[in-house]
Amino acid sequence: MNRAIFNKRIYTLPNFTSDVKSIFDHMDSLRSAARGGRISHAFAEKIMMVVTSVNGCRYCSYGHARAALAAGIPDSELQKIMALELGNFPESEAVALTFAQHYAESCCKPDPAAWQRVTSYYGEETANDIMTYLRMITFGNLLGNTFDALLSRFTGKSTSGSSLWTEIGVLLGALWMPPTRLFLQLFKSKTF
Question: What is the pTM of this model?
């Protein structure tokens, strides 16, 4: 019997646990990126749409496409991003957008030279903001894809290297791990 396979990148329990920890370890970076004004809302949406296009999360694609249009990104430009046709963007955006594609395609393990180019081009603070957006959208993408993998499993399309229990474990972990990490982070910041 030839079974269909769900073919998108999803979370394993160890990767999910590691990413939740990493996100909460970098909460200050998230606040800084959101409030720093170094990256416009429209540019941040473009960066996140590139990663989403690589990872294929339908939930993030829908939500961030709407956010991108609301931020003033023309539909024609959004279509190019979704098709990963990044060659005609100005250099001021193309450096980050092509890095975002590389980051997603390398499963969050970019070539150090590629990261160095981003840091050299934008400066350390803006490069760190870019990385923060990459981490956050990847988390959302993989969580959405893990949910779709579970739904797909019920239609007979399983995910290679995954199991029902892994998918359920990740999704249940999404309910309790982030609030627990947040509580621990707040507790640690209070000195008694």
Answer: 0.89
